[in-house]
Design a protein that fits this description.
With about 80 residues, this protein is an all-alpha fold. It is built from three helices and no strands. The chain is elongated, with a radius of gyration of 20 Å. The model has no long low-confidence stretch (mean pLDDT about 80).
């Protein structure tokens, strides 16, 4: 399921790049500003998503290195 979200994000980013590469959009200054602002917002969200995904991966790696024990990971071993 995670792979699907990554693929969707990739498609959105590639779509935005295509739109920004279309010179005709810059004929209308208002549309150009909106597209640039939207692209900046999408880039910010993509960075946040990537950071969250990296954090999840780090947690899984850490849990695996500790034997996958929830208690050990949380530091509440007996």
């Amino acid at each position: 399921m995670q792979k699907t979200k990554v693929n969707e994000l990739e498609n959105v980013l590639l779509d935005q790049i295509e739109k920004l590469n279309d010179d005709s959009i810059f004929e209308d200054e208002t549309k150009a500003k909106i597209l640039i602002e939207r692209s900046n917002s999408i880039a910010d969200l993509a960075n946040a998503f990537t950071g969250l995904t990296r954090t999840k991966l780090d947690v899984v790696r850490e849990m695996k290195s500790n034997g996958g024990m929830y208690e050990k990971y949380m530091g509440i071993e007996e």
